[in-house]
Specification:
Blueprint (H helix, E strand, L loop, with lengths): L6 H7 L6 E6 L7 E7 L5 E6 L8 H21 L22 E2 L5 E6 L4 E2 L7 H17 L18 H14 L9 H9 L6 H7 L6 E3 L8 E4 L5 E4 L6 E3 L1 H12 L17 H14 L6 H5 L1 H21 L12 H29 L1
Antiparallel strand pairs: 1-2, 2-3, 3-5, 4-5, 6-8, 7-10, 8-9
Bound molecules: 2-acetamido-2-deoxy-1-O-phosphono-alpha-D-glucopyranose and magnesium ion (MG).
The site of 2-acetamido-2-deoxy-1-O-phosphono-alpha-D-glucopyranose (GN1) has 11 residues, from loops.
Length: 365
């Protein structure tokens, strides 16, 4: 990734000045262009991001959501007397009065966060304790947002975790086959279609009033947590782009997708892709303990099903993007989205094989 923008000029718009000691592209995430810039005067670092406008048609609304969410979290943490608040919630840097985004001459929209120092991330959970800590962190996040009225947030991507809508997009991509990739993806298309009838289970639960709408993260994978370098503690939930109304089960689904398997999201060796029940037990304990008193029995009863469905949905999304020629997710090698899809589907199969065992674990927490 090369630096293809005038970063000093962008930094200046956020009051950081033009004199930067370093600009480093951050090669993480599938969506935005991210840079870590270091200000020369005091050595402070900032995360500068160009928002992907193919994915987010209204970037200002995304930033406005994040402002409301981070303000709410900060108030809650301060009220509870939490130590080290500045490292436990993201801080947006203003670009002029009351605005936290900047549109440059090319039309690109930028935002800046203070960089949270001395942290690390994990792309998988290597131990049950780590899965437990991560589950606890996302559970606490949902809890802190429980009294933020959903009506205060915009829906920045419509139908985000609407699995039937994701299936409709897949079917359209298969029918169009614009890149001639459908034939080679036959097994993956078949795998998805065999499970098509179940795509609506979570939304139906909500439609019949069994599970409530809440403010949730919507991308609750372990990569979106910062852990303290020294203590190893989960410190801060990041990537707040999709925080908006949704179901708690969407988040738990992504937790299962990213924390119950030792292999990465794009692992090529499919033999490594399988549920580790001990990791699941850690995750379930952390999440359920953190949401005690909030999580309803119907939500708890569908945790394992949510993991299966959200992992399936993510595979469907990767497959759709592969068939469309990789228009949505950044790819770093040929057929990367197809590889990601295969990993998701292998994990779905493993979740299905271990579902009863995992349900017993939930019941015992
Ligand atoms: C995308 O920004 P990033 O890479 O964390 C995506 C999520 C997917 C995820 C797959 C806005 O998240 O929905 O689950 O990739 N975000 C958006 O890892 O589509
Ligand atoms: Mg994201």
């Amino acid at each position: 990734l090369i630096v293809h923008a005038d970063l000093p000029a962008i930094a200046d718009c956020f009051g950081l000045g033009r004199d930067l000691a370093r600009v480093e592209p951050l090669r993480r995430g599938h969506i935005h262009d991210s840079y870590v810039v270091t200000r020369r005067s005091d050595g402070r670092r900032y995360l500068v991001q160009r928002i992907n406008q193919t994915v987010f048609a209204h970037p200002e609304a995304v930033v406005e959501n994040i402002r409301r969410v981070t303000e709410h979290l900060r108030r809650r943490l301060e009220r509870a007397g939490t130590a080290d608040c500045a490292r436990r919630v993201l801080t947006l840097v203003p670009a002029g009065t009351g605005r936290f985004w900047h549109r440059d001459q090319s039309g690109a929209v930028w935002r800046v966060y203070r960089f949270i120092e001395h942290t690390r991330t994990h792309s998988t959970a290597d131990t049950p304790d780590l899965a437990c800590a991560a589950g606890r962190a996302f559970g606490a996040f949902q809890r802190l947002l429980a009294d933020l009225p959903a009506t205060e947030l915009s829906e920045t991507i419509a139908h985000f975790h609407n699995t039937p809508v994701r299936y409709a997009a897949l079917e359209a991509a298969v029918a169009a086959d614009g890149c001639g990739r459908a034939a080679a993806a036959g097994p993956e298309i078949d795998f998805s279609m065999r499970r098509r009838a179940e795509a609506g289970v979570l939304l139906e639960l909500h439609a019949r009033g069994a599970v409530p709408q809440r403010v949730v993260h919507n991308d609750a994978k372990i990569d979106n947590l910062l852990f303290d370098d020294d203590t190893g503690q989960a410190l801060c939930v990041v990537d707040l782009d999709t925080v908006m109304p949704g179901l708690s089960l969407f988040d738990f689904g992504d937790m299962m997708r990213s924390m119950t398997c030792r292999a990465a999201e794009d692992e090529a060796d499919l033999d490594r892709v399988q549920v580790d029940v001990a990791l699941f037990a850690g995750l379930a304990r952390g999440y359920i303990e953190a949401t005690r008193g909030m999580l309803l029995p119907a939500e708890r009863a569908h945790l394992v099903e949510a993991g299966r469905l959200i992992t399936l949905e993510q595979g469907v999304r990767f497959l759709t993007d592969h068939l469309r020629g990789d228009a949505y997710y950044k790819v770093r090698r040929p057929d990367h989205n197809l590889a990601r899809c295969r990993t998701q589907f292998r994990l779905v199969a493993s979740i299905e094989a271990h579902a009863d065992e995992m349900k017993r674990i939930v019941a015992a927490v």
